[in-house]
């Protein structure tokens, strides 16, 4: 199966599961519609990374689906809030108006909040998921996700993104910001697949290392696409990093050097994955897509 076909199939699975399992009982219709709108669209790459890692440990997609849906809802929360006028102020996301443009700024804040909370409930309150994996594994998954999202992770990274805007920063500072705001959550998706499958401590260490490197590659590629692609191709406004004076590797190193550094990180990630004695062919295919995609 081609990687684009795989991503499309997995995205459909995740979106259908989300709509079918997101409770409407006692929920204002405007809120439910806003949350579904925010959760719909995009490649659902993190879900596919989770599926591919879990597959290497003989965990099926149906078993991992509640967690995959939850992770993608949480990712959508970060995008919805990132697009708000007080943040990046972007009018488009995933080829359609940003949630706050479609439903208003207040719903952008509240639906983003709901995506985070309901994303966590999507798997912690799913009976089949709890029965399949047990309390200990689910608690470990929660700890991994919350570390990736908190003050030392995504939230802290987004704060650095704001603080560094328009300022001269070092390569080390930019890479630290990348790890916090992007790489740790991609790492979490990979690592959680191993946790569900009962990966050993050594395997988790290697999966963590791989996921972090891949996450750094993802953010570098995102910044490259911002200066090399059109908005219609990206599904969001291109060229905003330069306009807003964002601290990016492309800005301080240039396109060619950023591409070289991304390729170097990708090769390191592949070497880490090769040290694991399992069939990670699907995970490797998805990883190649991360650095070769054009949107």
Structural class: mainly alpha
| SSE pattern, N- to C-terminal | HHHHEEHHHHHHHHHHH
Fraction of residues in helices? over 70%
How far the N terminus sits from the C terminus, by CA atoms, comes to 20 Å
Radius of gyration: 18 Å
The strand line-up of the biggest sheet is 1-2
% residues in beta strands: under 5%
Task: Note down, in words, how this protein is organized.
With 295 residues, the chain is mainly α. It is 75% helix and 1% strand. The protein has 15 helices and two strands. The protein has a two-stranded antiparallel sheet. Helix 3 (45-56) runs antiparallel to helix 4 (61-82). The longest helix is centred in the last third of the chain and has 28 residues, at 201-228. It is globular and about 50 Å long. The model has no long low-confidence stretch (mean pLDDT 94).
Question: How would you describe this structure in keywords?
Answer:
2 strands; 295 residues; mainly alpha
List the helices and strands and how they pair.
Blueprint: H1 3-21, H2 29-39, H3 45-56, H4 61-82, E1 92-93, E2 96-97, H5 99-103, H6 105-124, H7 127-149, H8 154-163, H9 171-196, H10 201-228, H11 231-234, H12 240-243, H13 249-253, H14 255-274, H15 281-292
Antiparallel strand pairs: 1-2
Helix pairs in contact: 1-4, 2-6, 3-4, 3-9, 3-15, 4-6, 4-7, 4-9, 7-9, 8-9, 9-10, 10-14, 10-15, 14-15
């Amino acid at each position: 199966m081609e990687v684009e076909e795989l991503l499309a199939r997995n995205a459909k699975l995740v979106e259908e599961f989300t709509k079918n399992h997101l409770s409407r009982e006692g929920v204002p219709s405007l809120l439910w519609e806003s949350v579904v709108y925010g959760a719909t669209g995009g490649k659902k790459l993190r879900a596919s990374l989770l599926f591919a890692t879990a597959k290497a440990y003989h965990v099926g997609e149906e078993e991992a689906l509640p967690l995959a849906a939850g992770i993608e809802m949480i990712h959508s929360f970060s995008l919805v809030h990132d697009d708000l006028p007080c943040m990046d102020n972007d009018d488009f996301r995933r080829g359609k108006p940003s949630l706050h443009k479609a439903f208003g700024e207040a719903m952008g804040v509240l639906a983003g909040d709901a995506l985070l909370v309901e994303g966590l409930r999507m798997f912690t309150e799913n009976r089949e998921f709890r029965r399949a994996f047990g309390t200990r594994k689910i608690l470990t998954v929660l700890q991994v996700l919350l570390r990736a999202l908190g003050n030392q992770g995504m939230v802290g990274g987004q704060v650095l993104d704001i603080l560094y805007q328009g300022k001269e920063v070092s390569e080390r500072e930019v890479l630290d910001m990348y790890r916090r705001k992007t790489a740790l959550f991609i790492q979490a998706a990979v690592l959680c697949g191993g946790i569900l499958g009962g990966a050993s401590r050594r395997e988790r260490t290697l999966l963590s290392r791989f996921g972090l490197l891949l996450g750094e590659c993802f953010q570098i590629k995102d910044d490259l696409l911002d200066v090399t692609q059109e908005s219609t191709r990206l599904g969001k406004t291109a060229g905003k990093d330069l306009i807003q004076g964002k601290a990016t590797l492309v800005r301080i190193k240039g396109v060619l050097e950023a591409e070289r550094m991304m390729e170097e990180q990708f090769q390191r990630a592949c070497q880490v994955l090769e040290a694991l004695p399992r069939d990670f062919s699907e995970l490797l295919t998805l990883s190649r897509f991360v650095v070769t995609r054009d949107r």
